[in-house]
Specification:
The protein is built from 3 helices and 5 strands. With 84 residues, it is an alpha+beta fold. The protein is globular and about 35 Å long.
């Protein structure tokens, strides 16, 4: 993923392909249990929350920590395949 940092410069974020769905409570429990171990790299603690009671999409290393299995939907594969 390419994003702009706080300095306005574009940056590249690479992460593992794992994706799982989890409730927000599970993520809060994880963050609380890891305590003050320092600030993790963004690619190591990434999730998307759509709001309400919908589950969060947990991606990359964090998904792997929750024993995720690799799951790539056909649209993601087609988009990745068209880049090369």
């Amino acid at each position: 993923m390419i994003y702009h940092g706080s300095d306005g410069k574009p940056r590249l974020l690479l992460m593992e392909p794992e994706v799982i769905e989890l409730g927000l409570g599970s993520i809060h429990t994880y963050l609380k249990s890891r305590g003050n171990l320092g600030i993790a790299r963004p690619e190591d603690e990434a999730w998307l929350q759509c709001g309400g009671d919908q589950p969060c999409q947990v991606v990359g290393c964090l998904a792997r920590q929750f024993l995720a299995t690799v799951r790539m939907n056909p649209r993601m594969f087609a988009a990745a395949n068209s880049l090369g």
